[in-house]
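Methods — Computational structure assignment.
A single polypeptide chain was analysed. Its primary sequence is given first, followed by the predicted tertiary structure written as structure tokens.
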Amino acid sequence: MAETIATGLEAPWDLAFLPDGAALVTLRDSAHVVRIDDDGATRLDAGGPDGSVPEVQHENEDGLLGLALGPDDGVYLYFTTASDNRVVRFDLDGDALTDPQVILDGIPSDPNHNGGRLAFGPDGYLYVTTGDARQVDLPQDTDSLAGKILRVTTTGEPAPGNPFGNEVWSYGHRNVQGLGWTSDGRMYASEFGTSEFDELNLIEPGGNYGWPHIEGWADEAGYIDPVVTWPTEEASPSGIAVTDTGVWLAGLRGQRLWHVPLGPDGETGEPQAFLDVGRLRTVVTAPDGGLWVLTSNTDGRGEAGPDDDRILRLELS
């Protein structure tokens, strides 16, 4: 049974928890950041028009996307501008986001295929997912930031030990929007396919995940196959939450929450589907051990109900 945490959000995209248990949520289209706590929803002032994040440009799938809270207490945001996608660090001061610092820019952008997920890994470095920006020659180019998972420091420098000496951690991706780790450090990512297969991948440093040459399983030397695939109409996976027992994937086109069981050695069980509340953008493990799920029915592609978009909480048994 899903418990409703918040309603009336417009195109929410990402969610992260503050140390006090409150949550920050990005609103893609309006470029606002909202804090959700016991007092309800409070729109933060980021310095732009009506308190929005400055310089954000939204047309279709782009806009204010990923959000992560850093080990330095910074609020890291991924968003689209008129010229690129970028990652900007802010300080959180009461109800305001202040002192913006660009830590990574020049990520190719397009109205579609921008990636956009941010997550700090168990190693303390910031992982950034990017899309191919509809330039299919870029994912196989390890000198390009497009179609990649990137790994950087809190100031945006390439993290020590990166396989190509730059920001790139893995490549050959079409559009990654979900990242997570098990307690033993295995890293998983979700990826949108084009017309055949969506993917859940186990990420290896320096790994080539095949796009645009491969979609789904290929069993071909030089490319890493996914651990699970779905027909695109059943998934379109965006955010994921990873626990030691399984991976949860928020499905947009598939309009369901997928759970992929994980065995102790990483073997995968039969995926199971949950929820019937429309399009799902993000799933996050909450401090109390439950799951918080963002719906995505007001994003221009869903059928919004009177309370959409919502944050729902599920209890993990």
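Note: The domain at 3-314 is CATH 2.120.10.30 (Neuraminidase).
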